[in-house]
Amino acid sequence: MSVTTPPRATEPAADARTAAPAPGAGATALTAGLVLVLVLVLAVAVLAVADITQGTADVGAGEVWKALTGRAEHGDASVVIASRLPRMVAGLVVGVALGAAGAALQAVSRNVLAAPDTLAVNAGSYLALGILTVTGASLPLLASSGVAFVGGLAAAALVLALSGLGAGTVRLVLAGSALALGLGSVTDALLLLFPEQTNGLYQWSQGSISQNGFAGVNQMAPIALLALLGLLLAGRRIDALALGDDAARGLGVPVLGTRVTVVLLTTLLSAAAVTLAGPIGFVGLCAPALVRPLARRFRGLVRARAAVPVAGLAGAALVLGSDVLLRATVSAESAVAVPTGVVTSVAGSVFLVVIALRTRGSGASAAPDRLRIPSRAAFAAVLAVLVAVFVAAVVAAVLLGDTKLLLGDVVNWAQGRADHVVTFVLDTRVPRVLAALLAGAALALSGTLVQAVTRNPLAEPGILGVSGGAGLGAVLLVTTVPTAGSWSVAGAAFAGAAATAAIVFGLCARGGFQQNRLVLVGVGAAAGTSALISLLIVLTDPFNATKALIWLSGSTYGRTMPDVLPVAAVLVVGAAVAFSRRAELDLVSLDDDTPRLLGLALGPTRLGLLAVSVLLSATAVAAAGTIGFVGLVAPHAARALVGRRHIRVIPVAVLLGATLVSVADLLGRTVIAPAQLGAGLMTAVIGAPYFVYLLVRTRR
After folding, report:
1. For residues 276 and 216, is the Cβ–Cβ distance under 8 A?
2. Residue 34, Cα to own-chain centre: how many angstroms?
3. CB 405 within 8 A of CB 419
4. Does the structure show a pLDDT above 90 at 440?
5. What's the domain range around 451?
6. 320 and 382 both lie in a single domain
7. How far apart are CA 457 and CA 435, in angstroms?
8. Global pTM value
């Protein structure tokens, strides 16, 4: 199946409308469909009962039955009625809402990866509720759901506009991931700037079905039910859209109106789920995927009026099953702290990888950029301007901050003649500036190597999951060994990055690093590492959690000279390797045949360059936390300025990356001083629009 064609789930629908059923086939299919529904209902019921019996208090099935019939003791009844039952019902509502929303979105977009997560609906709703929390406005739950609906709808509309309906899975995932990262960075900034107002918002953002009574369920369930009924009423039109826009128009279906209606209804379902339980990831993606293979056996499932509610049942089974699995594998006390959404996110990341491995792209790589080749004089002029901007950024970063200094103060400090105040300021500020410069340069060089080896201008360590793996390794050490030194953190980050890179590049190597497969596997790996990082932060003590959140935001706060030594050493080695292998980089970035004809061992060359890229990314993450989009923006802008030859691209990309992160760090610690924002948050805000620009520019 090509990623640019409609998913196979829609093909049986066309057959069902053209093939004449055999005698008695309708009754047989109806019976089989009813049996399937009964099996799903029974599975959900079993999971619901199991979920009610799990928790910190020892309440078995007998006590649950007594509580439901009013014959239980007061303590058991209060546990069941006030906590267990609301949690179970919330799982049902959320699962049905997300599963049904995913099935409807995939049908109207004809894209198997369309879901509330990949359309950034959850990220938009989360940001909207975060802004509401920061303002201190106290709104009823229904009004909060309306705020979440507006935020999710705006995000979904933007992603659909950027990706184009039916334009393929990769573009949708890229647009949704970029927008979700940008929106998430803004929300993370709110968490750091307003810790008191947003207390508990991070844990809520991971998705938990735990409830305190039935108040929330009673208000959100009717909204979800109304939206679900709306989708069922629009079922025939959804079926028509699944056949294609032209076929739908031929049947008299208003394509745009139907699509807008479905997006509105699915966003309303997602907003109700987010308001009730927070963003529970990937249920809307996985539930329809579980139902899709059944459509080949139960032909009635090709129709939306059957597929949407059945996907809802599958979603309920996923949410309740994740909650049951979580509480069965960890202690009852830990299960209370771990959000259900972490489990579903890990499962969803695995699903993305499986989808990627089954995807057959149209080519091994992206088409090379058609860029002009500037003259030597033009290259020298670009380099001179960038060096001047770089120097200006360094000077501004050293002089500006909560305490403003003069160049004379810096000169006196360098000569050891500065007073105590200036000495203290520069002793703490200079390592921060160096950490930002070196991390930016390392990420830019890492992105340059990755884009050359994979021949994919949209590839970069963050999107491919390498930065997420480095972050996971570093956070694991930070939360378990708070006193770990900089070299230990760098080692842990490299171990995490190496493990993630081995998985991602290993799975993609056999197909020649196909663009589609590489992006989908990388996004899946990034989602999985993000979920595991969230799990570590939730389980650790508040002090370590705050430290990890600050570090993940790309903050250079508290950096010392020993902290920047690993990335400085690796950057020197990486730059030397890149310059010495510049001819090989030019060759591998062209195609597979040319390097082989010239006697270049393509496999070992790629592996060596990717290993250097992983080392650069890991040490950059260890020095300055996770900083996104630098490895994408800097190499791409460098090629636009000086052409494709890597002897020119490397120095320009390194200068651009160092300047970008330095300026982002400077803005983060001066614009809202004395409060500070991490450089990673600032680069995400800058990089996400640039990524969107690239998607728009390459849209066909």
Report:
1. yes
2. 37
3. no
4. yes
5. 376-399+433-698
6. no
7. 26
8. 0.76
